[in-house]
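thought: fold this chain, then report.
action: predict
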Amino acid sequence: MKAALYVVPTPIGNIADMTLRSVEVLQAVDVIAAEDTRHSRTLLNHYEITTPMVSFHEHSGESAAMALADRVAQGQSVALISDAGTPLVSDPGYQLVRAVQSLDMPIVPLPGPCAAITALSAAGLPTHSFQFVGFLPAKRGGRRARLETLKSSDSTIILYEAPHRILDLLDDIEHVLGAAREVCIARELTKTFETVRRDSAADIRDWVRRDPNQQRGEFVVMIAAEVGKAEGVSDEALNLLRSLSSELPPRKAAQIVADHYGLKSRDLYQILISRE
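observation:
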């Protein structure tokens, strides 16, 4: 292995989701920097990876990052892994990346599991533009204030949430963004009780509240853009689209409105089918 920092994704649930390349890299590097060495040991044992590990997490600090960067500068290969998924996605590993970059040494990112992208692929929400915001503030006031800043986003919003706050989050989404805003929750991705459900904010909240099983596990929550925002559609055009769609097939209604307002028919069609 050439001297470099290798950013290596690990499974988000199903242990079989390791790529062949990730296994090969972890077997070949000089050392693995792991968020939690005890947690990662199970994965490494499964794939018969005996490479030495050191701990590197959000509280490790700048000196720990520079110590690992120095090892790369001295000719060693270092792999960075998190507890699950792609390092640096809602994860503090960027400190190590910056430290290695400061020594003008290479960073080698490997593709692999990421909860946000896995969830988005099954959400049924527009994917041409999306915004990942990680975890929102834990307290209601801060969380609602953050949602206010996202209220008029023209992109699909992706965030993470802990099980003990999922109902509070869904309450706040309905309160700030409205009961009709389209929301998708993905729970326990790649695991036995994987669940993906898309509905209005109010109906999603009620569904989760009724079933305690849906309040467990790890959550990715996706929020649709405000209707019309992503496509730059005026309220006037949107109202005409709604009226025509009650009498005509979606593609025909979308084409008429597109021709009249100089819009893209596929964007209008997407608005219609996303609300079905």
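thought: worth noting. Residues 5 and 107 are 5 Å apart (CA to CA).
final: tokens above.
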